[in-house]
Design goal:
Radius of gyration: 31 Å
Helix content: 40-55%
Structural class: alpha/beta
Low-confidence stretches: none
Shape: elongated
Distance between the termini: 83 Å
Strand content: 5-15%
Strand order of the largest sheet: 4-5-6-7-8
Mean pLDDT: 84
Oligomer: single chain
Number of helices: 17
């Protein structure tokens, strides 16, 4: 067993030089023990001595070196051995994304890059004043200090970013592993620190918190995405995150209170619905708002006994801002009339409030919303139900059924039977009228249309 001692956890140069010599000498990965510093080694291990044999040629793809420089910063203690195993075997395997070893190392590299990004995004400096002025100037000796807890060994790799970003500022970044200090000319390192070594709040943070609270927009809130990009572990080091829970809770309380006013004596349900519609008009909970013309909210009496929900607005609905007015809406109106249901007496809405499409020349072709987009609109659907309180909700198509039931279902498995909804009321699932427009066989289209009309009749009868 050969022991290779590296200078630090992020010693890429030391690993590269040792690994090159070992690989050229043909030393297998199983005979090497990698360690950092003067840690106790294997009792039977020897210091690495290269055999006198002539070294074999070693050609390494640039992609391997790029991967190694990132993966070696990972906290996994096996990273040195795994990288060497790939190098000593065949580094050109780096091109095979199905290779288990390559996939594991690529995963490490991604986690490292993510950690580097998190440090750049979430480091927050706090001002510290020294009692002694700067020598020879008489100016206040001001330093800015930040505390950060990386998941991997990325502090040195990030040093250049902070030097270039804050060149004229005297700063220190404290982490458990090591500390960086910049005096506007020289970067130096120090030992690791603790959270207690970092300063607390400073007056500037009060200004920042006030600004952050003023720009907080609840309609833009996407909690899942926020936690993915800004995990809770970083919250305690950032002044604005102290406000997040309060702002999120306040936003939800405000919207819920707006709806709950409808059940209090004197509450105006139409006013509450109009306020909800106006707030949805500015919704950016998913990316569909970027290309759609407008939010297409529900319409109809807010005390309707039946709510009918389609998939999403179509091209004409997107332009007009109203649901069910395009070709599928015409089929829907005809079927409703034959089923004896007055459209003016039901509440019409869609599972997704923005039009999703693919541009083909001058035409916008419908594209089905994905699960994330359906989930993003669930807040608006839930508030519509809270206001309308329908006795029965009729879902047209699989996307609407998913929104209503909170899970993916098939039309075949759920069609034509009464469903009890967890939040109260009954549910019913049938096809979307656009399905009828896509059937090429006329006889089959007529049969399916008749079945659709029958579904509408049975749904209405369930609450008659």
């Amino acid at each position: 067993m050969r022991v290779i001692s590296l200078a630090s956890e992020d010693d890429f140069t030391g690993w590269r030089d040792a690994a090159r010599g070992l690989a050229q000498a043909g030393v297998p990965a199983s005979e090497i023990l990698w360690q950092v510093g003067a840690q106790p080694a294997d009792l039977f291990a020897d210091e690495a001595v290269m055999p006198p044999a002539a070294p074999r040629p070693l050609k390494v793809p640039r992609a391997f070196l790029d991967l190694a420089q990132s993966a070696i910063l990972h906290s996994d203690p096996e990273r040195f051995a795994l990288l060497y195993a790939l190098l000593a075997g065949d580094p050109h395997r780096i091109a095979d994304q199905a290779d288990p070893l390559v996939r594991r190392l690529e995963g490490m590299a991604r986690e490292v890059r993510r950690d580097i990004h998190k440090m750049r995004a979430f480091v927050r400096f706090r001002e510290v004043q020294d009692s002694m002025p700067l020598p020879g100037t008489g100016e206040p000796n001001t330093r800015y200090v930040a505390w950060f807890e990386p998941s991997h060994h990325i502090v040195r790799a990030n040093a250049r970013f902070f030097v270039e970003r804050f060149t004229s500022m005297r700063w220190s970044i404290l982490t458990p592993e090591l500390s960086l200090h910049w005096d506007t000319e020289t970067l130096s390192e120090g030992p690791g620190a603790t959270r207690a070594d970092a300063p607390g709040d400073d007056p500037v943070e009060d200004i920042w918190k006030t600004y952050y609270a003023s720009i907080f927009n609840p309609a833009r809130l996407k909690t899942g995405a926020m936690l993915k990009e800004m995990p809770r572990k970083y919250w305690k080091n950032m002044p604005e995150t102290a406000l997040v829970r309060e702002l999120v809770a306040g936003a939800r309380q405000r919207e819920t209170a707006m709806v709950e006013t409808t059940i209090r004596p004197g509450g105006n349900i139409e006013t509450a619905w109009a306020a909800l519609r106006d707030e949805a008009a500015h919704c950016t909970r998913c990316d569909l708002h970027r290309h759609a013309t407008q939010t297409v909210f529900g319409e109809g009496p807010v005390d309707a006994r039946m709510m009918i929900m389609g998939e999403q607005p179509g091209d004409q609905e997107d332009l007009a801002g109203r649901p069910f007015i395009g070709p599928a809406g015409e089929v829907f109106d005809r079927a409703m009339a034959q089923a004896g249901i007055d459209r003016a007496g039901v509440y019409l809405t869609n599972a997704v409030k923005h039009f999703k499409f693919e541009q083909r020349g001058k035409r916008r072709i419908h594209s089905r919303p994905d699960a994330g987009e359906v989930q993003a609109c669930r807040w608006w659907y839930a508030q519509e139900r809270l206001l309308v309180k329908p006795e029965l909700t009729l879902a047209l198509g699989a996307t609407a059924a998913r929104q209503m039931l909170g899970k993916a279902v098939t039309i075949a498995a759920t069609r034509g039977r009464v469903l009890e909804l967890p939040e109260g009321g009954l549910g019913w699932v049938t096809i979307h009228p656009s399905y009828l427009l896509r059937l090429p066989d006329r006889a089959r289209a007529e049969d399916e249309y008749a079945a659709f009309v029958e579904d509408l009749k049975r749904a209405a009868k369930a609450i008659s």
